[in-house]
Design brief:
about 575 residues, alpha/beta, 5-stranded antiparallel sheet, 19 helices, disordered C terminus, binds iron/sulfur cluster
């Protein structure tokens, strides 16, 4: 047996021999010993604290914390917001339950909207082509261009005080004011063509409908103002075998709306118009609608072949549609055959159908219309970044965020989230008039201008947004109609001065008109529409106007997109 003797080791070489293995063993022992002491942890702690306090590291705002009521202005729905502020900066948002339409709901992307102002793609300086420029140069270039030739101004959120400024400037210059309409207004465009009544003054009286037939509109998944239909459905339909509000969802896939609807009618992708024609034929065949209304040329058998449904199932669906009236048909975009069903059912200008909430709104030229020989095109920040006008004119594009790949000659930094005073007219598709005012709650962190401010600085005779808001408040106060929704609901008659009324609005209250005061209108359709249009689904994700998303929402959006097949999303 081997035995180690210390004297042997010493005597062999005359001195103690240190091998590499010994060194490694000592190092490992020293490291293990050091870890058992507080020294490394203390050093790590000190370095972390020291590096957090470097002057260039952003610090969270410190100061009084308060909650303010306002509105989300990122799209024309104008949902009510509760904004948590710290030292004058927005640090969180939530839905406001006092808003009469959104009723506490927000779309998922808006929950982190306060982060958008700090997004890396925030547009912070004027750009001309790929070079940095100045506001003075942009103003000079725009003034020069608008003197040289016709001007086109494009707005994505019509009806605001800022829209009046854009429209007035275009009119004074002999130019053209155009509107990029959201999908809900495009779905009402057929009625505008048939009656001459602007689509922006029409809305869906969902609150009084008993049967809603949705042709692919994602009513329970982001359609319209968040919270409006979902709350109605929760109150009048959810969990009931025979609900007060029947939702019939016509869809090619088991979408989230289809899964929760009273009935899901499965059809082939893109055959909505064929089913609408088939339903019209079945309604006539069973004498369920007036005989003098237009009859489609498509037969029931043809409709069945295109939709993949049986003729008997289409007949049965026609009976269901009229079983519990008022019945309201909703298309997901501009689809004349689907819209014509409301004419057939007598749902236009009626309680529980398509109603007209205002006689003041003018019809607008669509932003997509051909731009002739314009010299300059000014695009407001409310127009979706993806919209590219087909023109060779010089393009002045206002935007709060740079979405990249733009055709614009000038990029002009616009106010971001809650950085600008704006008013909120009635949201698209609503059945009653509403009005709100969103103050500038936070300071802009760079030199920004809205398109309306830019035009007012060029033409001093234009009224500013603030002045137009003042006169609108005075007008509402004088009319003494409707109610104001704040923590309580006040009748307009309770306000003793326009000042107190305006103060309430600036604190996040909403004025709402009387839904029953809707003027009646009629439409007599002579022929069944044969023209069909390519339709696109509308939802909170497709209606998001900013070219960027809050970091918190990006993942959510990507995962939400997995719900539908790519072909459906690209439709
Ligand atoms: S739908 Fe979303 S983005 Fe539009 S106003 Fe409401 S919360 Fe804002």
């Amino acid at each position: 047996m081997w035995k180690w003797v210390a004297s042997d080791a010493i005597n062999e070489g005359g001195a103690m021999k240190v091998t590499r293995r010994d060194l490694l063993a000592w190092s490992a022992g020293a490291a293990a010993g050091l870890l058992a002491t507080p020294v490394p942890w203390k050093v790590l702690d000190d370095v972390s604290i020291w590096s957090q306090n470097w002057p260039w590291i952003p610090q969270p705002a410190r100061g009084p914390v308060e909650v303010k009521q306002s509105f989300c202005t990122l799209c024309p729905k104008g949902c009510g917001l509760r904004v948590r502020m710290a030292a004058g900066w927005a640090v969180g948002v939530a839905g406001s339950s006092t808003h009469p339409i959104s009723r506490g709901a927000l779309c998922p992307l808006a929950f982190a909207a306060h982060q958008l102002n700090w997004h890396p793609q925030r547009l912070r300086s004027v750009c001309h082509g790929s070079n940095r420029s100045t506001w003075a140069d942009a103003q000079a270039a725009f003034a020069h261009a608008s003197k040289e030739g016709p001007l086109v101004v494009i707005d994505g959120y019509p009806g605001r005080a800022a829209s009046s400024v854009l429209e007035s400037f275009a009119e004074k210059q002999g130019g053209s004011y155009r509107v990029f309409a959201p999908a809900e207004l495009r779905a009402l465009a057929s009625y505008e063509r048939w009656t001459g009544i602007p689509a922006a003054s029409l809305g869906y009286d969902l609150e009084n409908a008993n049967t809603v037939i949705s042709f692919g509109a994602p009513l329970l998944d982001g359609w319209g103002t968040p919270g409006r239909f979902t709350r109605l459905w929760a109150e009048r339909a959810a969990g009931m075998r025979d609900p007060q509000l029947r939702l019939i969802q016509i869809d090619s896939s088991l979408s989230r709306t289809a899964a929760r609807a009273w009935q899901w009618v499965e059809i082939r992708e893109g055959s909505e118009s064929a089913l609408a024609s088939g339903l019209a034929g079945a309604l006539h065949e069973q004498n369920l609608v007036p005989a003098h209304s237009p009859v489609p040329s498509m037969t029931l058998a043809e409709s069945a072949a295109q939709t993949g449904m049986s003729v008997e199932r289409i007949r049965e669906l026609a009976r269901l549609v009229v079983a519990k009236t008022p019945a309201l048909v909703i298309a997901r975009d501009d689809d004349p055959a689907v819209a014509a069903l409301n004419v057939l059912l007598g749902s236009l200008g009626k309680r529980g159908g398509i109603v007209r909430h205002s006689e003041q709104v003018k019809p607008y030229v669509a932003a997509e219309s051909v731009i002739g020989s314009a010299r300059a095109v000014l695009i407001d920040a409310s127009v979706p970044w993806d919209f590219v006008p087909q023109t060779n004119a010089e393009i002045f594009r206002f935007a709060a965020w740079d979405g990249g790949g733009t055709k614009a000659d000038w990029l002009l930094p616009a106010p971001g989230f809650l950085e600008d005073l704006t008013d909120l007219p009635t949201a698209p598709g609503c059945s009653a008039l509403t009005y709100g005012v969103a103050p500038a709650l936070v300071k802009a962190t760079s030199e920004v201008q809205s398109a309306a401010q830019f035009l007012c600085s060029l033409d001093g005779s234009l009224p500013t947004t603030a002045k137009i808001i003042d006169s609108r408040c005075q007008d509402l106060f004088r009319r003494r109609e409707g109610s104001v929704y704040a923590q309580e609901i006040f009748e307009m008659a309770k306000f003793t001065s326009v000042q107190t009324f305006k103060e309430q609005l600036l604190k996040g209250a909403v004025w709402a008109g009387e839904p029953t005061a809707s003027p009646e209108f009629h439409c007599s359709l002579k022929e069944w529409p044969t023209r069909t249009r390519a339709v696109a689904a509308e939802s909170w994700a497709t209606e998001w106007r900013a070219p960027v998303m809050p970091p918190l929402a990006s993942k959510l959006y990507q995962e939400s997109g997995l719900r539908e097949s790519p072909s459906r999303r690209n439709a």
